[in-house]
Structures are given as structure tokens and as C-alpha cells.
Amino acid sequence: MCYKAAMDWKNTLKNSVVRADGLAEVSGADLSEAAQVTRTYPMRINAYWMDLMKKVGEPLVRQAVPSIEELEESVLLEDPLCEEKDSPVPGLTHRYPDRVIFLVSNACALFCRHCMRKRKVGRSEGVVTDATIDAGIAYIQKTSKIRDVIVTGGDPLLLDDEKIEGILERLSKISHVEMIRIHTRVPATLPMRITEALCEKLKRFEKLWINTHFNHPAELTPEAEKALKHLNRTGAPLGCQTVLLKGVNDRPEVMAALMRGLTKNRVKPYYIHHGDAVKGTGHFRTSIETGLAVMGGLRGHLSGLAVPTYVIDLPQGGGKVPLLPESVVKKEKSSLTVRGYDGKLYTYPL
Fold it and tell me: What pLDDT, on the 0 to 100 scale, is given for residue 243?
């Protein structure tokens, strides 16, 4: 079914491919392998993305179609960033002193194969309920040092408008919360979700910031640009967090085109994440040298406003660290020793 025949976002989601036999028309898809993978890691490819990836090919197919490489044995962990260890209540991670990660959904418009929460998204392990949302808000309310709440999931913008508005309303009333950040990929994966009605609700909240997630310039379609235009009219500052992915955006010219497209649409490139050491995603991870070469291809060729920060998220809850010469204490064949935001040394697997 062509997504253009189902512009209502809920219908577009309803017509998602979730079984391997739905990939028959996708060039290069191995249906038998996909069936094996989806027994462990679920698949969702909505009608919009299905149509787009058939036109674009490998960079978008790779992000959406299951690969047998997801099941390969490796030293990578399901939760290398220790989100669960730093979780005082279900669905909330409190690692940095002044901010929390607050999960309000475990569903996404597209189940990205590189997802850093593969252990949760679309699976029973990551169920979000009214009770977990209430518990998260209660924790934020009683913890006065929290000034920044990152509302994420899954994708929070897959909730109904009224549900989103209710969560933002409750968070906005907490006096010590100064920033509320929505992290969402739907402008790239389901842009028709960004409706005028939703944006009318979002513009009520002065504390709101919105971080999007685009990985390839082909994701900046006319539909996506329209969604970004709607979001810009809310008054919330827009940023983008991109993941460095082998075979998708690991060439300087591809990343530069993406950054130009984002800034053209008034979206500030924020981070390029080196691929997290998450089980089932190892085939997406590049070398650190590749990431630094990509950054070298941006600096001097783009406005400083268009150049994001290249970061790694350290294992054992060490936090995000910019990949700069002074961050790296020692480099060996299979690991980096990096100084974390807390001054401690962390070993990062290569």
C-alpha cells in the first residue's frame, strides 16, 4: 500500500510491515534471515518508509530491514550504558546530577536496526504504562536538583496529542524543571504525524526543546521538511542527533549533505553519536578513525553552526564524552581508555 493513500499517521502505522514475508518486494532482503531475526528483535517498517527506501535503496534499507548479523555472537551488551543501573524508578534514568531520561513510550514508527534500546523497543521488557509515567513524574517532582527532563522512549510523539499534552503539562508545573526535551525520530520516519493540531498543543510549553534524529540526507523529503516547518512554528528550538552508521553515513560527503539539509530547515546539528556498543548492532559500528575522518570532512567546509559534536557514550554509565585528543588517555588495538565527564577513566571497546 502506498503511504500517499493513507496520510493519516495512524493508518500509515497500521499498514506497517511486521513480518518477513512483507519484504518480498524489497531488493536485497533475505526473507529467511529476516524471519530468524524478528523472533528476537521485532520489525516495523511503516508504509511511508517502505515507499521511500524502495526509491533510495541501501542507506535506508540497511536501517530498517533485519540482518542476520544482528544475531551474531559478540562481546557487546544489551545495556552497555547501564541505564537500568541508574534507574531509581521503572522507565527513568538518573545519571547526570541535573537531568533525567524519561521513557514515556516503547513504540516507534520504524524499528531502527541500530537502536540503542533494542532490549526494550517493541518488546514486553520495555512496556510503559500510566503507572510508570506517574512514578517518573513523582520522582522528578521530589528531586529538586533535576532541571532538565529528556522525554523519550520509544518515540514520545507516537502517543496521542492529549497524552503528550498531559505529560508536558505536568512536567511544566514542576518549578525546578527548566528544560523539557522531546527526543523524536518521527519527522524522519513518519512525518505526517507532525500535524498542525499537535503543534498547537506543543507551542503552549515555553520550556520545550525538540531533538530530532536524521541519519541520511535522503530522509529530508518534502514531507519531512513540511514536518520540520510545523515544528519550527511551535517556537521550540530544534536540534538533531545523528548516529554514525557503517554503510549509511560514514563518508564525509554524505554527512555534510545531511548537515546542510538540517540547517536549511532550521535544525541545529547537535551530536554525531559513535555507535553504542549494543548487542545486535555491531555491524553498524565504524572505527573511531572513520568518525574523526568524517568530522575532518565537515570542519572548514560547513558553517560552524552546521558542525555537530562527535561523541561516544561511555560504558558503565560514564556518560557522553566528545571525541577530542584530550579525552583519549590511551588507545590500544581493541579499546580506548577515555576520561569521563566525572573525571574517572573508562574502557571503551573498539
Answer: 97
Helix (H/G/I), strand (E/B), else coil: 271: strand
Mean pLDDT of 270-274: 96
What's domain 3-349's architecture?
Alpha-Beta Barrel (3.20)
Helix and strand numbers, DSSP H then E, in the chain: 11, 12
In eight-state DSSP terms, residue 302 is: B
pLDDT at residue 4 tops 70: no
Query: pLDDT exceeding 90 applies to what percent of the chain?
Result: 75
Residue type present at position 239: G
Long-range contacts of 232-236 (CB under 8 A, 24+ apart): 232/265, 232/266, 233/199, 233/203, 234/199, 234/202, 234/203, 234/208, 234/210, 235/203, 235/206, 236/182, 236/202, 236/203, 236/205, 236/208, 236/209, 236/210
Element containing residue 269 per DSSP (H, E): strand 268-273
CA distance 157 to 212: 11
- The mean pLDDT value for 295-314 works out to 91
Q: How far is CA 76 from CA 121, 246, 272, 283, in A?
A: 18, 17, 20, 11
Just list the catalytic residues: 95-96, 99, 108, 112, 115, 117, 276, 313, 320
Position 99 pLDDT exceeds 70: yes
SS3 category, 173: coil
Confidence of residue 133 (pLDDT cuts 50, 70, 90): very high
Number of CB atoms found within 10 A of residue 348's CB: 23
pLDDT of residue 2: 39
Measured CA distances, 223 to 162, 218, 227 (Å): 24, 11, 6
Tell me the one-letter amino acid at 57.
G
For residue 161, CA distances in Å to 196, 201, 233 come to 11, 8, 17
Return d(Cα 135, Cα 124) in angstroms, integer. 19
Going from N- to C-terminal start, the domains of the chain cover 3-349
Q: What is the pTM of this model?
A: 0.90
